[in-house]
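Budget justification, computational time. The allocation requested in the original proposal was used primarily to generate structure tokens for proteins on the priority list. As evidence of use, we reproduce two of the resulting records. The first is shown immediately below.
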Amino acid sequence: LYHHEHADGTGPFQKKWNEIPLFARIIHLADTIDIIGNNPGSGNNSWNFICQFLLKNKDGLFDSECVNAFFHAFTHFESFTCLSDNSFEMKLWEIIPRQKQVFDWKTCKNVADFFAKIVDYKSSFTSRHSIGVAEKAALFAQYIGFDSINVQKMYLAGALHDIGKMAVDNEILEKPDKLTDDEFSKMKNHAGYTYIILSEVEDFEEIRDWASFHHEKLNGKGYPFGKTAAELNEPERIMACIDIYQALTEDRPYKKGLSHEKTCEILDDMAQKGFVDSDISKKIRECFGGI
């Protein structure tokens, strides 16, 4: 919120440096440096200009604490330009070691909800899609007899199933017209990105797969992996159906959500064509019929 504030109180909220959170002040300095020339191959001129700019605006745009910390971290041009090479992440983890942490259900749910909201609000077309999928996936899992742990896993998979859309341009996500073949190909990549992102979380293999395979079809014509019926387990089949159900029933700026009955008819038709599991489609009709 405060990353455009100035140390002297001349920013949008007129807060002075001692009223601004430290991390906001750091982001403000880094953001400005990036704008005025932090790019690969910019050379010594960029470094000299940045140094002069920071010193000139010390206690004006930037507080002394952050400016001094910058010059402590980057003592010369070479140390500054190392940020643009491939060793940056390795160097970062030398300073800040990775530590494995185990979180309880409430914490995991809060984190998953946080990312779900970021993804959903990235596009006006999907303002509550991920949370809706999460809630319905958990409700359905409970309805068919999953134990509490797997109900929770289904919720997390639903909340995170579209996290890969963070890597897709909004021009594609919000295009009101039919996507071109190239645009649709990029859109399809989002499920693959979900797989890659969730692969970074230890012990998330099941949740990763349940989340990432939501566009797979039983006949092998889904994406991005082209999984077949033999390769898709029950939770993965459920997630595919719930994603479709949620997308069809929710209101979007360009359409009114379909009724439960009409949506179930579409799912039944997809089941007959070999796209989704007919047994799950039938149980969705029962589970959500009274909502």
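The second record produced under the same allocation is shown here.
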Amino acid sequence: MSFTVIPAIDLRSGRVVRLKQGDYAQQTTYDADPRQLARDYAGEGAVWLHLVDLDGARGGSLDNLAVIEAIASDGMRIQAGGGVRSEADVQRLFDAGVSRVVLGSLAIREPEQVAGWLTTHGADRFTIALDTLQKDGAWTLPSAGWTEAESQTLDDLAPWYAARGAKHLLCTDIHRDGMLAGFNLDLYRYLATAVPTLAVQASGGVRSLDDIRAAREAGARGVILGRALLEGRFTVREALAC
């Protein structure tokens, strides 16, 4: 079974940032050029890069498209999202060189429309992002940069998308995002059983190489690495080797 290590770069106003638990008021800004950072990750062996337009995720427009296009032009395979609200937005990302478009809010609010795109463009060109927050015993699915509540749950939508041919699922435990508390392994074990046809990408909380090994053992098919790389807890090369 293949397993993919995917460094992440979150963008806000063209700069590299990280949020804690998706809270825009808890932002850390890093003194790094996003394009050079992507080149550094590629130089260490990363094939894929995960880009998030945080301005777009909250506001609904592709604010950082120029930065995404510049990074894609250097040759890495990019999955990118944040601000995708229409098929025109999807096409703009494809035209910018993005290999896979990440669909979050729209995947929750307009699943029938997204299922149509899986057929039209090919399921391998999309990552369905069902980022989740456990509340009153249910895995809820906040949208719009995790700022708005929705009625759908992870239990509703993950199997629904699997039945319609989706291939890639990104699932972040929002409570752990940016907290360096380790992955929620029970979440990924559950998904490996509930939706075995989906290649699940684990995200949120990685702090060590042991967390990467544990996510793989829990059934995840890839890991998204953000803050731990930015703060030098380990390198992309070490993550690939483990």
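A brief technical remark on that second record: The longest strand covers residues 4-12.
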